[in-house]
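HUMAN: You are asked to prepare a plain-text protein record giving the amino acid sequence and the backbone structure tokens, both parts labelled.

ASSISTANT:
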Amino acid sequence: MRVIRLLLVALVPLAILGVFFVLPVTGMVSRGFWTDGSFDPGGVLDVLTRPRVHRVLWFTLWSAALGTLFSLALGLPAAHVLYRRRIRGGSVLRAALLAPFVLPTVVVGVSFRQLLTASGPLGFLGLDGTPAAIIAGLVFFNASVVIRVVGGAWESLDPRPAEAAAALGATPFQVLRTVTLPALRPAVVSAASVVFLFCATAFGVVLTLGGLRYSSVETEIYLLTTNLLDLQAAAALSVLQLVVVVGLLLAAARARRTADPSLARVVARPRRLARGDVPALVATSVLALLVLGPIAALVAGSLRTDGAWSLANYRALETTGQSSGQQHALLVPVTDALMTSLRTAVDATWMSLLLGLTVAVVATRRSRSRSERRVRTVLDGLFMLPLGVSAVTLGFGFLITLDRPPLDLRDSPLLVPIAQALVALPLVVRTLVPVLGSVDDRLRQAAATLGASPFRAALTVDLPVVGRPLLASAGFAFAVSLGEFGATSFLARDEHPTLPVVIFGLIGHPGPMNYGMALAASVVLAATTATVMLAVERLHVPVGST
């Protein structure tokens, strides 16, 4: 009976997932497997034998591996410094290093291009348009994931085993190798899995920095669907990507379940810096330069016009750019695109919050039987699936499946917010599930015994606990929506583009005015998301690992 009630509660979010996720993805994939009305799986398999597909798969694999390795190499020392040591200005440094977590990928790409271009501060290195630039962009974007996931675990690590090892004569390196890292292994494995996933599915960074020369699976799907209309090849890559990503999600979930018992429930008090922290400080400084350097180059470039300091690029945001012909680079001013992005983000936020809160409640209520526990586990996994599917696949699937009654939403203003809400949903769920899961179910039972309805019990018991994480989830969803580019690049109408779509369009149009506007628009978008993340950081609510 409880299983039936559980399924009834989950019916609405399951229906939404079915209509706006399963249906579009299935429609996209089926276009590749069915040709001329007949089932043709051999054609999809033949795609995987193409030399270009092999190059794309190999580039995705080794670039994601290197991005993960460097993210761990810089993120782990930074997590130690920021969460276990007391340093002056630590809160500001933490906010600066964590901000890239939701910084729009298009902004990251534009920032590195400005830093590495021939006229940029590091142009003499000749790295513009190279794999090294792409990997640097991936590390910029994903080191903050390592800091968040591992730093939260490190902060709550019981210090007594390390202190005992030190008292027995172990050196700081021996303590780290034999005590600390084994205790942090589940968090490190989880962070590495998620970072590899984000590197392998990076879209805006690879598309902006790699162009057509270097393509990952994600950007290849985009090029196959938009430029070549080769849906069969896009479907083959989408299926392959889905299988790999689901495997990574299962590995990350297993790492979360095997949490080490030495992870305490209390927050350890940070200590002063010691001589042994010098290597960690050096690595943290390198990461700070990697994060702040491109942003500084972006801001400086946006303030330069014709070799002089000027606000002309910002004033030009009220125009539609320039073109060599009679047509302008844009149909609407950049300021209008910013307002569209903000309105879209508001809609995507409340959608993802309503859906995510419902999923979190379903996934965290106490199970009284093995079958009920399995159902909850399956439901929790189902709503993580949007993380495992290319946003490009999702966006194109929207176009080809939601185009006829009763689901003809091509002209609906809610189409883009719905897609962005699905992209943000896993982040919302992973933020709320640990919080709701920590609530003692006996408190709800006591409230029910005293005559409280389930709704009143939720207001009395759950709301005080989930209030701050709910606000944090809203901030995360809002920031993710502001920077979402993969699905939005398909769905946004030309007369109502979002700011990331406009920035990418400006980069594609030649002319110093268009490029200067792209830099200024990137600064505006980065400042908006950074402001949101600073507000979230003040709530001190960590993001759960996906």
About this structure: The first helix runs from residue 2 to 9. The longest strand covers residues 34-35. The chain has 23 helices and six strands. Residues 40-302 form a domain with the MetI-like fold fold (CATH 1.10.3720.10).
